[in-house]
Amino acid sequence: xxxxxxxxxxxxxxxxxxxxxxxxxxxxxxxxxxxxxxxxxxxxxxxxxxxxxxxxxxxxxxxxxxxxxxxxxxxxxxxxxxxxxxxxxxxxxxxxxxxxxxxxxxxxxxxxxxxxxxxxxxxxxxxxxxxxxxxxxxxxxxxxxxxxxxxxxxxxxxxxxxxxxxxxxxxxxxxxxxxxxxxxxxxxxxxxxxxxxxxxxxxxxxxxxxxxxxxxxxxxxxxxxxxxxxxxxxxxxxxxxxxxxxxxxxxxxxxxxxxxxxxxxxxxxxxxxxxxxxxxxxxxxxxxxxxxxxxxxxxxxxxxxxxxxxxxxxxxxxxxxxxxxxxxxxxxxxxxxxxxxxxxxxxxxxxxxxxxxxxxxxxxxxxxxxxxxxxxxxxxxxxxxxxxxxxxxxxxxxxxxxxxxxxxxxxxxxxxxxxxxxxxxxxxxxxxxxxxxxxxxxxxxxxxxxxxxxxxxxxxxxxxxxxxxxxxxxxxxxxxxxxxxxxxxxxxxxxxxxxxxxxxxxxxxxxxxxxxxxxxxxxxxxxxxxxxxxxxxxxxxxxxxxxxxxxxxxxxxxxxxxxxxxxxxxxxxxxxxxxxxxxxxxxxxxxxxxxxxxxxxxxxxxxxxxxxxxxxxxxxxxxxxxxxxxxxxxxxxxxxxxxxxxxxxxxxxxxxxxxxxxxxxxxxxxxxxxxxxxxxxxxxxxxxxxxxxxxxxxxxxxxxxxxxxxxxxxxxxxxxxxxxxxxxxxxxxxxxxxxxxxxxxxxxxxxxxxxxxxxxxxxxxxxxxxxxxxxxxxxxxxxxxxxxxxxxxxxxxxxxxxxxxxxxxxxxxxxxxxxxxxxxxxxxxxxxxxxxxxxxxxxxxxxxxxxxxxxxxxxxxxxxxxxxxxxxxxxxxxxxxxxx
Amino acid sequence: xxxxxxxxxxxxxxxxxxxxxxxxxxxxxxxxxxxxxxxxxxxxxxxxxxxxxxxxxxxxxxxxxxxxxxxxxxxxxxxxxxxxxxxxxxxxxxxxxxxxxxxxxxxxxxxxxxxxxxxxxxxxxxxxxxxxxxxxxxxxxxxxxxxxxxxxxxxxxxxxxxxxxxxxxxxxxxxxxxxxxxxxxxxxxxxxxxxxxxxxxxxxxxxxxxxxxxxxxxxxxxxxxxxxxxxxxxxxxxxxxxxxxxxxxxxxxxxxxxxxxxxxxxxxxxxxxxxxxxxxxxxxxxxxxxxxxxxxxxxxxxxxxxxxxxxxxxxxxxxxxxxxxxxxxxxxxxxxxxxxxxxxxxxxxxxxxxxxxxxxxxxxxxxxxxxxxxxxxxxxxxxxxxxxxxxxxxxxxxxxxxxxxxxxxxxxxxxxxxxxxxxxxxxxxxxx
Lengths: 884, 432
What we know:
The complex is a heterodimer.
Chain A: E1 8-16, E2 26-28, E3 37-49, E4 52-54, E5 68-72, E6 87-88, E7 92-94, H1 97-108, H2 110-123, H3 153-159, E8 168-170, H4 179-184, E9 187-193, E10 199-206, E11 221-227, H5 236-262, H6 270-294, H7 309-326, H8 338-348, H9 354-361, H10 372-381, H11 385-394, H12 401-415, H13 426-448, H14 462-474, H15 477-487, H16 491-502, H17 511-521, H18 529-538, H19 542-552, H20 554-564, H21 580-592, H22 599-606, H23 610-622, H24 639-644, H25 650-662, H26 665-681, H27 685-694, H28 698-737, H29 743-763, H30 767-779, H31 785-799, H32 809-827, H33 832-841, H34 847-883
Antiparallel strand pairs in A: 1-2, 1-3, 3-4, 3-5, 4-7, 6-7, 9-10, 10-11
Chain B: E1 2-11, E2 15-20, E3 26-31, E4 35-42, E5 47-55, E6 61-66, E7 74-79, E8 84-91, E9 114-122, E10 129-134, E11 142-147, E12 151-157, E13 166-173, H1 188-196, H2 199-221, H3 234-240, E14 244-247, E15 255-260, E16 267-272, E17 279-284, E18 309-314, E19 323-329, E20 334-340, H4 348-352, E21 359-366, E22 373-378, E23 384-389, E24 393-400, E25 404-412, H5 419-422, H6 424-428
Antiparallel strand pairs in B: 2-3, 3-4, 4-5, 6-7, 7-8, 8-9, 10-11, 11-12, 12-13, 14-15, 15-16, 16-17, 18-19, 19-20, 20-21, 22-23, 23-24, 24-25
Helix pairs in contact in B: 2-3
């Protein structure tokens, strides 16, 4: 129940507020009862129609972003039926019929439900008997599934584990024991990179040296294929990881584009920052989703995950840290950051562990346990006030009365520590903090009064331990640091504690200085890439952070850089023409290119990277296999309908559209020319012409027309007429859209079309029309000279038609003129221009045979004139006699 | 890295070249066994299926190149039999056959739906043809070849649908090629050119070596994998030299080609103009002879330490303001040159500076192969360079931030058990 509507929610995370040790909402991997759940974080799908749900909320549609929400547990109504298939695409989800019935039922009682939910959520009643408690399944498999993408890469991915590209990768089967053995045999390796993906074909080749080969030459030689990147796994969630984060990426690009065009100072607009922050948090949510999914012990029929859960955890910590440090809520840029840092630390690096707490609470005299003081210190350091107070309360059973008393005081101090979120003005917070510090000082004074001798119990010097905690509360930097070192905590913890205790007004701009100081004494772990990313982010070294991030995952570097640039964290220009952001985004795009099926995503990223990216995108785009040969997809639609029905050409249409979207006209024309060539090869002339004209490739168009006319010669008039009628519709388009298009080729195309019309009329025995057409063709001067002879020869049949005179006197005279011209020119020695094609239609014939044929035309012509003279005279007499 | 497939018995002898088609869905391979084979990727299972196989030449095939698909399915092959041949795949539907003796392909799996037909033989070369490459598609259906007679030849197809008539539009001796007349005497290019290309000697030697080549052809090449060893001195010129070409993929600069010939160890950037003789815009010379102009460079010193360039590859510029050209040589070096085009300057002010000239600098120079490099080639976006050397390794190179080129992995075919302890130094290199 979202607002007043019933929506489908893809559950990402479940939050619980149980086990009050921290009091914050901790995430839960799964749960069996709704009772322990406080919030459900999820992606909301809006009901569109019937069983369709739309990912994009109409309210947000302008922005086109994915909608996430934290939904109070009471709003949760029911799970989708377990065993039904849910189809999902990037933007839509289709649920099964059972699920739809459920939805329909719920929808019918929407208003009552809304009331009930509202009261449930506000009253926080524990009795949730209104709805039966459905059994939860694990949250991430709540039903959304995406079909496996059709690709052979599946099996590649299975064997793949992430391997850093270091060392020597050896191919199997091995050819030699040692690499030197190859040379000894006069051989060497060679390779050629594939345009399809990032793979190489590796083969054995003669060594480039003057030493001769000793290897027997007749041995079979292999060719290996090796990819330089592990193909992104088709393991479902990861496929969604790539595609879904693209949605956010695209939304972000959109935001930049529209905002920049509106206002150069757009970045300072609060509204824009809000949206940026929201999108960044969306990324964090997706990473979290992947982490949760990856950390599930569910059986994996496709083999182990390409990236471990820990990998996603690293991405999660890095990205969320970035949001904390660089994308504060607008208006809070100057606010103290300590608590946010501590919250980040508590979410990602949970200390002290719950088990320790449970262990201590089960003991009778917990302070005798060696984990007691470390636990208490850590809990305090982490600002986990409830846990600290809980432990301090245990001390009420301690033999030392002093300690009992001190613990009580400390408990009240800890639970009364001012929290920024409870104040409306920072000034009030600072004031409260000072007063609170005074209380701590009082506690210190009280401690000092404890006699030296009373400072021990039977196990430990409790006073020293207690003093450390007070030191933390006092905000003594050296104590915080020492305690952290003793507890095995790293610099991050010192940093966060700094913001909470040492300097409660710790601001974002103060962080780098402090971090530098801390790092001097507590250096980060250089072998831990994640830690290095954190270090660089804390120190405000964005470029370094990206460099480390790209080692962790190119995805991370690309998407961080994408947000960093508008925030002016990294410079827009670089000395070498490719800005830092583009470098990282391109590196990610290159990784994606390792799977050709991801070409759309690959070019989406590339086209966001200036000229360099655009041209690289072109290279990828023009090499997307067009698969025009896929006959299976070809619907038997004829003529114009076939051209219009663009889906016939599958991928081609897609690629074309992508070119249009990104205005890559050059690439589009290249693709069209290739398509036209392929279509000509398949004799699909109609489509070929339309692609040629789309590419404005007039020469290519000319060649196609030639090929069609060739069909007349090789396959005869009937086939020709059929092919020519395929290209006829595009002629009309040409005249409309390209009035200035290169006249010569269009002229030839026009002839082909009209000539085919004429042939069709002949075949259908509409001889009168055919004769008119023939004359009209000559009169309109569309017949190229080389075709005169052929066309005239076609006239013989019409001239000899017995039942009627098909030509007007003027028409016949026109034909005669042309015929005479041929004879005259031939006698002048330029017969080739006129006779070549006719000669080719005669098997084994030459110009002489062609001329012979034309002589029959002349004969037919003479007879025709004779007949017409006689008949005209006869007609004349009839008319005259009628008059009389 | 991941292995994605293998053709275990591709050829009956060593493979001399392999070339993907425009889309990477087909692979043409050629071999010392004189055959060309075509393989098609079955995308449903990732296997490569043999599509066609024929005996193409009367000697080892040295190189193979695909034409741009807008011209159809066309490949050109170069061979030690001194010819370049042009092949076309015909569809089974049967396009008009010109009256030309059609050479039926050898055995092979002619599925009768399509087969490859010889369309033209280009016999002009007076030495073994070492490389052939189709020009970028915007210059029309053209191809360039280079042979051991040091001649670069450009052919242009005159009748496109039939592919039978090819005009030799340019034929030029690489080593005798003049520098661009506009080159100022102070550019590095001219200096090195004067030093490194003693045209006289090499041309006389080439003349003498021609019959030897024929001899070598007859006795050695048809069966064995390299020129015969019994021929020291002149005969080794063939084996010690390097002949290679690579077109500039860009349209903007006109028809440019990088070519290297013989043992000189330099690559020339040659501009082809329709109305003019070809000129050298720039010479890429890695030898440090620039300062010490006195050092006599004898290109015929030959020997195993020859500096001949065996392979050159011009990267697609993809929006960069400069060109990248990679070379691999017998000296074991893989070099990446950054070539900056000359600006079109008219006023004298700018002409003083070097702006008007093409200039080059080496941005990367790797000796990791430690032995002769046989091949360098860029990927389609010009971001990854692959090189192959006599050390039995394929090495990949990538630019990292700051435009520093770094190793990005290597591939071998030895027993993988040894991988762990074999190259600790390399393993330390942090890739990517």
